[in-house]
Amino acid sequence: MEPENINMPPVFYLIYSSVESKVFDADMIKTLINQSREFNKQNNITGILLYVKGQQITKSKGRFMQLLEGDERIVRKLYKKIMNDTRHESVVLLQIGKYDQCIFSDWSMGFEDSDDETFQSISGHFNLNDIIEYCNKSAPSDAPLQFLRSFYNEV
After folding, report:
1. Each residue's pLDDT tens digit, 33-92
2. N or C: more exposed end of the chain, with fewer CB within 10 A?
3. Which among 4, 3, 28, 14 is positioned nearest to 96, based on CA atoms?
4. 132 within 8 A of 149, measured Cβ to Cβ
């Protein structure tokens, strides 16, 4: 019997970062999550989206870092769509490449630790410490995961 992934093509991945064009509230996050999950499910895209919320008081804007994995043509098309999405600004491509299998098989979204129960109640919320622990266990020297660690360490 042959191993399952012997004939599997490499998985394309793309990592970008961006800044929200205005401070997101819980409804905007829910809309973004729902739209993203639906598109990704229909297009067999997996990955992770990390979000650090902005602060209205200091007028600082939130930041995103996303790793997308899947068919190269579809992922690149999605990235172009994100670059033109008015909810994002300062979109920067950080890395592209290929690896043997998907690292993140479920669409997820991480938030910086917050006492704001509104954000914690959104489906998909998890503690960023958990994802860093996952990264350390999964592939401690894997370049895509290093980007996620560096984003987390800047929080």
Report:
1. 888 888 888 998 988 888 877 776 667 788 888 889 999 999 999 999 999 999 999 999
2. N
3. 14
4. yes
